[in-house]
Amino acid sequence: MTDWNPVLRGEFEKPYWATLMAFVNEERSTYEVFPPHDEVFAALHLTPLANVKVLILGQDPYHGPGQAHGLCFSVRAGVRVPPSLQNIHKELHEDLGVAIPDHGNLEAWARQGVLLLNTTLTVRAHQAASHQRQGWERFTDEVIDVVNAKEERVVFILWGAAARKKRSIIDLHRHAVIESPHPSPLSAHKGFFGTKPFSRANAALVDAGRPAVDWSLPPL
Which residues of the chain have pLDDT under 70? Predict the structure, then answer.
């Protein structure tokens, strides 16, 4: 996990981690679980801690076949863009005029320092929330704490009630928080659309002397 390993290594020695890993292994032996084993920590592999300037927080991985690949809201090229991500693309277009891409792969953001983190890192196929409250949240809270400890400004983008609860563990004096309802079709029209999170994130970064993110998603 690149430079994440030294700061997160202590979690792997705590009792909850062994219990969590046993749970996930048992689930994989009995059910289909997403994302694949080698992609569970993709967000940490693609975005080193030293590079993090934005953290977008999701909840569960996608639970349909071929969707989840370890980055919140993202799917690989060739996979149908899920409704929440379609709404993210629409808001990005309205906010910055970025062309709506024909794919849902957000790796270009991750490689620029946008940590695409879910609060739960695995899920049973077709069963949303099936791996919540098993220990993942304790681990991802530690990831948030580590990012929160960075001296330079980080922009935390919190979409939806579950993500917005994490506001309480973020240092609001040093960092910036952008929050709104979730981009899901069930809630996007209740306050997600029109919030301009991408231009606001860039403004907060530039104000702190950090480079803006190029939010465009080039063809793959």
Answer: 1
